Amino acid sequence: MEGLTHFGSEGQARMVEVGEKAETQRTATAQGLIEMHPDTLARIRAGQMGKGDVLGVARIAAIQAAKRTHELIPLCHLLGLTGVDVEFSDQDQPAAVRCQVTTRTRGRTGVEMEALTAVSVALLTIYDMCKAIDRGMVMRDIRLLEKQGGKTGLWRADAGNAE
């Protein structure tokens, strides 16, 4: 194994070789937020958006994105996900919807990119479904909250390091 790097011996980009790494249970949790006009949030809550159930569609989009991350992010490995949990919560001040995604696999590489991609696509889906009435929505604070498994074990954003 040449080491865990995205650069080959001549400096070209390559997919990291993970074949010799041990398979372990791996999980990652990411979250993000989309701020919107209060009327937009009220319509989402009431199920009154013209395109249908905004959060239901965003949930499916998040799951699909997690499963297809390797097609979207260069050099990501194709992973057999064993689970994807998508949760939404909303808040009034500022008016926003938060998305949190936890991805799981048993494999040789982590699922952080799958969780982050799922959150991003969920928020983009909310934007797409609501843009006819609110083009000023802002997606922000997309970040990894926690990852478990593999060589580094447990990492949490609040701690900022492996335990």
TrEMBL record:
Domain (Molybdopterin cofactor biosynthesis C (MoaC)) ranges: 15-150
This enzyme's EC code(s): 4.6.1.17
Keyword Cytoplasm (UniProt): no
Positions of the catalytic residues: D128
Amino acids binding substrate: L75, C76, H77, M113, E114
UniProt keyword terms in alphabetical order: Lyase, Molybdenum cofactor biosynthesis
InterPro entries reported in the protein's UniProt record: MoaC, MoaC_bact/euk, MoaC_sf, MoCo_biosynth_MoaA/MoaC, Mopterin_CF_biosynth-C_dom
EC class (word): lyase
Pathway annotation from the record: Cofactor biosynthesis; molybdopterin biosynthesis
Molecular function terms from GO: cyclic pyranopterin monophosphate synthase activity
Reaction equations catalysed: (8S)-3',8-cyclo-7,8-dihydroguanosine 5'-triphosphate = cyclic pyranopterin phosphate + diphosphate
Quaternary structure, from the entry: Homohexamer; trimer of dimers.
Summary of the function given for this chain in its UniProt record: Catalyzes the conversion of (8S)-3',8-cyclo-7,8-dihydroguanosine 5'-triphosphate to cyclic pyranopterin monophosphate (cPMP).
Family note: Belongs to the MoaC family.
Protein name per the record: Cyclic pyranopterin monophosphate synthase
